[in-house]
Hints:
The complex is a heterodimer.
Chain A: H1 2-10, H2 30-50, E1 67-71, H3 73-82, H4 96-103, E2 113-117, E3 122-125, H5 126-136, H6 143-153, E4 170-176, H7 179-182, H8 197-214, E5 234-235, H9 238-244, H10 249-252, E6 261-273, H11 281-295, E7 314-317, H12 319-327, H13 332-342, E8 344-346, H14 347-357, H15 365-370, E9 387-389, E10 398-401, E11 410-415, E12 423-426, H16 433-441
Parallel strand pairs in A: 4-5, 7-10
Antiparallel strand pairs in A: 2-3, 4-6, 6-11, 6-12, 7-11, 8-9
Chain B: E1 10-13, E2 37-42, H1 48-62, E3 67-69, H2 82-87, H3 89-96, E4 100-104
Parallel strand pairs in B: 2-3, 2-4
Amino acid sequence: xxxxxxxxxGLGMPNITLAMVPGHxxxxxxxxxRRDVIGVTAEQVIQNLTVMPAAKGTSGEPGAxxxxxxxxxxxxxxxxxxxxxxxxxxxxxxxxxxxxxxxRFTERSPDEVLGVLLPxxxxxxxxxxxxxxxxxxxxxxxxxxxxxxxEAMADPKYAVEHSxxxxxxxxxxxxxxxxxxxxxxxxxxxxxxxxxxxxTSIGRFFRLYLRNVAGFLLHKTDKATFxxxxxxxxxxxxxxxxEIGWETTGEEMGYKAGDNTVTISRFTGGGSLSSVxxxxxxxxxxxxxDSLLRFNNWQITFTTSHGHGTxxxxxxxxxxxxxAIAKAGWxxxxxxxFLFEHARMPAWVFERQLRDWNIRGVWDLxxxxxxxxxxxxFYESDDPNRMVPIVWKPEDFMIAVGGDPxxxxxxxxxxxxxxxxxxxxxxxxxxNWETLLKEVQD
Amino acid sequence: xxxxxxxGYYEAYWPRGARQQKTRALAPRLxxxxxxxxxxxWDYLFKGDEVFALLEEDLKRRYPGIKFVSWREFGSTHxxxxxxxxxxxxxxxxxxxxxxxxxxxxx
Lengths: 442, 107
């Protein structure tokens, strides 16, 4: 109810009426549901449809370029925490001088609107990118990456408006291109851990931007049951990918080899695979395939008519695993085809997850196939033991390469499908990039 | 001994952006549900099919002339094509003579 009330402000209807079913639907018996809907909900529905609620105004806010607090470091941080501008860690105060340093690294006008972000429906300006970049502890030279990331966030295909949903997933930013080395990103051991300024601060920036410009605040517009914290940027090991002849994530998103790109996608969870062993793809990949099934459990709902196949699970392979597979002559697509054939489960297991455990009552695989909503591979016979995939086609699996080059581990990410669909953007550098970079790095 | 103040002095800017949405008025309310056509919108989650069935049962008992247009008519409001499904609604509501809408389910 709190989220509905908070979200309705950005939709222009702060007094929209709501009716409640007391408690939680998921734990009610049929008798309890009947009692509560007829005894409580119905009355509220009638009231909502027949009685106009009182008007609600919205409170005033600062202007887009206003100074909101003057004072010492502690006073500024206290103010920012009080007004929910901060994630709870100290922020770097966004002063005019600091912001202007960031703006030197883009040719875009500070007032340019990169998009309008729900739920608050605020303008995402280049200026606000710089402000939040300062706050997050980014360096000015990261600004082109920050701008590209927010362009991606504002892409309707990404669907940022779902970033406060119950599963509480968080975005992974995958970076490709020469900028990785130019800005000293970590792309080897510990690739997903904080500790390197660019990887860490840009990850933090993304979440600060979700808070401050998209408007996701816990206990208001963000209703994650648990939530994740921001994810460190994954810089792919482009060198290894080039050596083994596999496309980078940026190339798979449609960009050219050598382009600087960001790809953002939202993941609800995942986990590390230890000791992925074998010297051939046939030995290495079954473990990956099985793990994709284990980590993408309820998410298979997006494979059905709920998401029309928008599930894009991600496997990050350490370089030594990718090299071993490529040594056998396998391309990335070959890997994806193997995963498509082997990351399968019996149809009755697929349906049990969604129908019995996630309570999706009005659906089954046969109905979806017969009505042309999902591909025939999900209903090739009535045999409940028939093996069905978790994606619609091999290309739906995403594979990235990173991490410790000499450890045989992998990492599987569970995807949130159309509620954070992969979107890529090219990073635009200012014409005097090399000069500016030399200035700040000397 | 003089104390050094290491807290500095900062003039910090607002990290948000201007809202782009103005408040708009809600649709007028109905004087009664008797004889009215009520559409159901569902996101296919949280037992909405059962909730809508119970609401129908109870509201028909209270307002015998009430009519419902099932959620089956409109598709899910929370799927990958939700934007298209929502954009199509005003026209569909007009075609179907809808007077009011109940949209669910959130959690």
